[in-house]
Amino acid sequence: MADIETSNFQLFRDLISEPLIEKSSTTPEKKTKRNRLGRKSAIKPVVAKPDEEVNDAEELAEFIEYLAREIFQSLPPELRTLTYSKYINDPILQNKCALPLTDITTTLILNAVPVTVPETLDTYSLLPAHRTTSEFLIPILNSYVTTTTTAPPPPRQTRDLADGCEICERSWIPLTYHHLIPRMVHAKAVKRGWHTEDQLENVAWLCRACHSFVHRVAGHEELAKEYYTVEKLVGREDVRKFAEWVGKVRWKAQ
Q1: For residues 8-36, b (16+ Cβ closer than 10 Å) or e, as one string?
Q2: What is the distance between the alpha carbons of residues 43 and 48, in angstroms, rounded to a whole number?
Q3: Cβ neighbours of residue 145 under 8 Å, at least 6 residues apart?
Q4: Which residue has the higher pLDDT, 127 or 225?
Q5: Beta strands per DSSP E along the chain
Q6: What is the DSSP letter of 122?
Q7: 18-32, 33-47, 53-67, 171-185 — which is least confidently predicted?
Q8: Contact 253, 234 (CB under 8 A)
């Protein structure tokens, strides 16, 4: 899977897992008869061993992985790779993904789901009471589209999400934000089709040393055209070697 498709699958798997975990962790109470004290034939209660519980959890995880993959891979390509940027720049996609999803859209999606999915859900009694497979999946599909088409927070509000410099990974040093598409070429980037307007404020949180190094090794246009993500920056050998070296530079405790 491509990076976007992989992250979207992980989101979809998480959405699928929530009701299945809730269903699997809820067991109906059974009424038991009291046995007379001292009765030799009394049936002793069976207590699940810890390793049995672990195995059950592992099996559930494997089942969720299988089910999520079967359904996700049956989705139309534009849904598997859906992002906020694609959504706001494609009127046709906006119409198709208007929330809540229309009956026509959900029917087309659900008709493509393998028949093994409803059969499996029914076999293992994982559907909530009085709910069909469609009723089970439609809220999940709506949540998936809602999440993937929601605008990201303003760049400066993402500081708390950064554990450290996104290049050298030093976590104890002050960070600055680096415009992945330099502001000086914003107009040109949109005019020439390098990027869409919603991508112009994408930032990376870097320490001052890495920030300065990035601007030393590439000009504004080159950064905008070739190195507009952290992954592309660290893909450069010179940036990677610098990160390895500067990551070892640490201040002595005062």
Answers
A1: bbebbbebbbebbeebbeeeeeeeeeeee
A2: 15
A3: 79, 82, 97, 99, 101
A4: 225
A5: 176-179, 203-206
A6: H
A7: 33-47
A8: no
> Quick one: tokens of 230?
């952290």
- Give the span between the Cα atoms of 80 and 54, in whole angstroms: 32
Q: What's the whole-model pTM score?
A: 0.65
Q: Are 229 and 206 in contact (CB under 8 A)?
A: no
Asked if residue 8 lies in contact with residue 82, where contact means CB atoms within 8 angstroms, the answer is yes
Query: What does the block give as tokens for 222?
Result: 């080159």
Angle between helices 50-72 and 116-123 (to 10 degrees): 160
SS3 at position 203: strand
Four-residue CA torsion sign, 208, 174, 184, 189: positive
- Between CA 6 and CA 18, with CA 12 as vertex, the angle to 5 degrees is 140
**Token pair belonging to 219:** 């000009």
CA atoms of 237 and 204, how far apart (whole Å): 19
Half-sphere exposure of 89 (CA within 13 A, CB side): 12
Q: Identify the CA nearest to 82 among candidates 99, 103, 107.
A: 99
CB 85 within 8 Å of CB 199: yes
* Cβ atoms 185, 220 nearer than 8 A: yes
Radius of gyration of the chain (CA): 26
Q: Is the pLDDT of residue 69 over 90?
A: yes
